[in-house]
Predict the 3D structure of the following.
Amino acid sequence: MYIKKIEFMNFKSFGKKVKIPFFDDFTTISGPNGSGKSNIIDGILFVLGLSSSRTLRAEKLTDLIYNGEKSKNPDNAQVTIYFDNKDRELPVDNDEVVISRKVRSTDNGYYSYFYFNGKSVSLGDVHNYLAKARVTPEGYNVVMQGDVTRIITMTAGERRKIIDEIAGVAEFDNKKERALNE
Ligand code: ATP
Ligand code: MG
């Protein structure tokens, strides 16, 4: 499974529809400071709901909506990730899986919506699907700036926890603990 394409709509600095293609092996993104490279990573964390333990570099979800217009700013932002799923790492019978998230700002607060192949789903559903492909919020599928230094300076016990996450053991430890508490 790999990301084929990401589509941004009014997300952070992407004030119009922007499509970014990815390759199946290696993609690098380069550009001047402030051009939006990190905003692309923020977009990935946003759609996949991986932001709980990492920062999206925004105080509130509505800060993710493009606010660069002087007159009228959009009231919603949407990011869509197109996965190649030919290897069926995600447990659905589709060569392509599309996960999308939208945040909408209203006078009564904000709303957040997740879609899995066009179907409205919950954050928990997205997490459950992704966990099958070993993509988890606690995992190291996304390595943020500073993570490497933190891992080097950790104690052996803390580092062991990371290996458990990567090996997929921690997921079962968590499930076991939850089951025992019920
Ligand atoms: P660097 O090389 O310094 O790491 P970068 O390419 O990673 O830069 P980003 O941090 O992705 O840059 O982008 C920062 C830009 O995004 C800033 O110019 C900031 O004003 C803009 N930005 C962030 N949130 C919004 C928003 N809601 N609306 C419009 N622009 C935004
Ligand atoms: Mg950056």
